[in-house]
């Protein structure tokens, strides 16, 4: 079940970058959800290439079609299959990668693991696969809306430019107001500048996406292996180019004392709350009703417009040259992917939690 | 399957901190492995409480018994059940936690999720559960030894004291030579000092465990969701008190340029190697034959010997007082747990990889 | 994972009878298998409606398209998605079933379970879903051919007409030589007659499909719950209209004595063989190298061309009238479905068995 | 996950016939169920050897211990581990089976599959493993009692002696009133006679267990592969010595016409009912609220007190002689096993069904 994620609300994705199409089957989506195709379309547009000067200039339309599982606008409880056809499969010249391993790509490892490899545009290892996740995540968001759960991701670092404000001071309605998807305009400007500069240098740079989920009910997450943050981490680390995940106080929490780090409980009206939230909304692996927040680190994109040392499939030394149109920094387009994976995990654990008590 | 981890080489753990016993079933361990009980015992001793002045002074013997799956010293391919009986179940006074929620513990979330809660020593949420993982991980190590895979974890940070040397400069045979499990004696001394000082202040502190796996064959890891590092991250984040995971260049890779970060390929004898290893031994989610390395961040232990603000199960304000004997810093005892979870993931993916080709 | 079957070689199907399309994702098919599209097409044609006078006269073309997972004619180890588009989705008049529950169909139970229901042609509960299984089963057969495994199913009973010959006396090359798919022409003629007669009476009748797998290696099947025959039974019982499954001596074995029923071992050349095969090729849940054989019972098709008592979605008494074109007996078209499910199980367990020993 | 069964309410069993112990972990049992240990004990006693003259005279006490998951008499939502220690592990003389393959046992197939084999008493392939299932099934029954579900199995055939009455005419309170567990005393007497006679002939005989589940809510079962009857079939076929499974009209339904077989719907008060129940309470794979009923065929026990032709582990001809104390007919002790597996399936699907609607 290697291309499947989830326990009850599950997704199985398929497809290669330059094959006939890619897509996803959502199995386990409860019946009775209004499937708003426009909303799915908007989510896909947030991810698609060619949106701005700081993303790849490649054009892909990412039109999707729902093949099953929706009847008269509602989910029926049966598998929802969505396909995104690759309109541009024209036989490009792939000779520069067919027989050479691009550094820090999946070329070499796929070649060794499977013996054969669809080298066109990276095949299955292409980040194009995440379009299917975004489509599925949109459905998960529609399900979560029934419970008042809201998910907001944003770019909190691009290269060395870091947004220093804590998430509580941000206005998430501004995230989509600039091309880098940072809800603080001043920082956004700096990020855009550094990305644009890097692009001009024919190089790439990394970044960090932060994510906040509000309105998550108490009780999601399972002891022991499927702690909510462990599954969120799994989900985030499965996104292309991700190198790290932390939630709540994260790596910085390491240097804190227990007496500072512990989140004191108090009562606010009927609700048990915590005065601080170093726990990131998750205690003992289970949501405690506070905001869930986490960060995801993305490495610099491996495709650069420069010559690089490598070897070919015969094991001879080779030079890989940069070609095509690629993102100088992946994080602006990663924002909807992080949200989608977060939504899928929360939808799944919300359903799992229905079995906690007799 | 919430208490199960793995696809083929799977573990299912059970047991509460102060119940009759805890343990694990390993299902899917191949037949024909020599099960060295002494080795399992040694691994458990590395994790057990009461080892030194910087761990909890609580004594637990962690004697285990193998109930099944081993015949004449060999694994038979059937489930290996191992039980660690709790010798000290005496009915202590738990009134201080039975009806109060300890801050940053799992008390509140378990209470809300399940309605009932075994509050004795944290019940199922106790880190005592990891003893079962260490026992199972020892078996996974015995399996991996057939393939020449070696796993070494060590403490690389305690509070603000950080080991600055890269792992390549360390002699892992020194890890067990000091009580903090840092293979650099000078840094170890500073770590021990800060932990001991924190203990005297009735406080706790966090830390980082680093881990290196050598000899991992090329090809382990599955596209798309079960990238090797995503599953390693899941495994590590499922360990009590973990707040973050990064592999290879991790969060620091964010600020690098693609041209610096990419790992150039070259040929060394028959083997395709990379000149640098920012990939942490994993490319496109699949091992590339280089060393796999990653870091795991642990928060300060939540149990402190101080009074803390909280609420009780009736929702009234309450004060939780520190009691009992607890670790001032969890990382020295976490080293074998990190190794165990790493071994379990590698064993599982080594078996999964047997199905990659016809 | 309700629409998924298998552990390693898995299939996930989707689609409704009259939606845009239906299909399957095969995940876990090893890389390096030559994917013969013509063979898949032939298998689908064996299942498709409208083949003969004793099947439904409905015409469906069942043209499939492979969207992913195959490159230059070979499986790549990534998910193989196949879609069969429904060419005939025209909005027929479904008023006769939209608000009435057809007796012994899934109308009522889907309605109650999900609240909504795609009533067009039975929606997800339609046997049209099995086309996706046949396509996937064809790929499993191509994989099994590497191991010399051959699967032959045939009709052994239609209504009261029963093929009395044991399978050892049959020539499976004759199965496709008549429209009922019984490899004994004399019995086939009687079967055709009884089915045709039943059709003329606007009624339907049941039947039995027998299946024999030759060349299955020793060792397939897992203790305890996933005994090979238990999984074969699960697979067969998941086919529409199936009411029973038996393997080897089956229900008749009940009246035998142990001394008659036991299969004595002997040596034939290098191979351990059994003198009889009441075990049906499976002992202790694991294949023993002898022929695997089993029988699958199908009920009479529920759609009949007669008026029937029922209730409507409002709970009022209603009459359901027969309409459309349906099979008088399902077994001739069920033969390739039984083979497909058998192939999928054997492919999966062959891969699982690669992990039995160190 | 070969020794695990279920999706949400799951069991994982372990243990060999003559190892230290065997047992089960129930993972996913909801919190808040009163765990009645006396009830579990009674269920185990119905299965245990040595109950009567028509079962094996071997004595095994089957005392169980709950190690985890229960606190103050209630399930806590964490794994419930139960162990049954083997009190009689004394090193008997196993030379008669250590190096010979008993006909129609699992000796040969385990030997080939795993290379090693715990031959003592059949090891993992022994029916003793089912004690763990009965213990787990008792917990499932306690859960189902919250929903008014009641499960009754009984012996409906022993050798050629068959109970002809339909289940509707039986008084299940009589099942435990005789040693063969047939609720019709006259038939029971004949069954006892035939079993006793067979035992005297040092032979064995097969039988059939029928099972009826009443009070099952509408909606249990999942399209497509996990139809309720497919999973029940899987569960039953995973019991030692089972050769066949049928539900509702079963194999006899084959000869019926659709017009006879279809179950007409009508309204009874508020409830939609069916006039007949050839569907066996399951339509389209989903429970319809009528009684679920099915039959399970058991072969004659393979251990007979006679000499048999075989081969040894070196492939030489050998004679296997009957030894020890074994059941002449397995069905009286199989009744609680069938009930247990039925309860486990229903508990699991009841929980799964909580996710059907938004």
UniProtKB/TrEMBL annotation, chains A, B, C, D:
Any Pfam family: Chorismate_synt
Cofactor, how bound (note): Reduced FMN (FMNH(2)).
EC code(s) of this entry: 4.2.3.5
Pathway: Metabolic intermediate biosynthesis; chorismate biosynthesis; chorismate from D-erythrose 4-phosphate and phosphoenolpyruvate: step 7/7
Highest taxon in the source lineage: Bacteria
Keyword Transcription regulation: no
InterPro entries: Chorismate_synth, Chorismate_synth_AroC_sf, Chorismate_synthase_CS
A single Gene Ontology CC term: cytosol
Residues binding FMN, per UniProt: 124-126, 240-241, 284, 299-303, 325
Binding locations of NADP(+): 47, 53
BP terms from Gene Ontology: amino acid biosynthetic process; aromatic amino acid family biosynthetic process; chorismate biosynthetic process
CC cofactor: FMNH2
Enzyme class: lyase
A GO molecular-function descriptor: FMN binding
PROSITE patterns linked to this entry: CHORISMATE_SYNTHASE_1, CHORISMATE_SYNTHASE_2, CHORISMATE_SYNTHASE_3
Recorded catalytic activity of this chain's protein: 5-O-(1-carboxyvinyl)-3-phosphoshikimate = chorismate + phosphate
Keyword Amino-acid biosynthesis attached: yes
Subunit: Homotetramer.
UniProt-listed HAMAP family: Chorismate_synth (MF_00300)
Entry similarity comment: Belongs to the chorismate synthase family.
Function text: This reaction introduces a second double bond into the aromatic ring system.
Name of the featured protein: Chorismate synthase
Organism name: Cyclobacterium qasimii
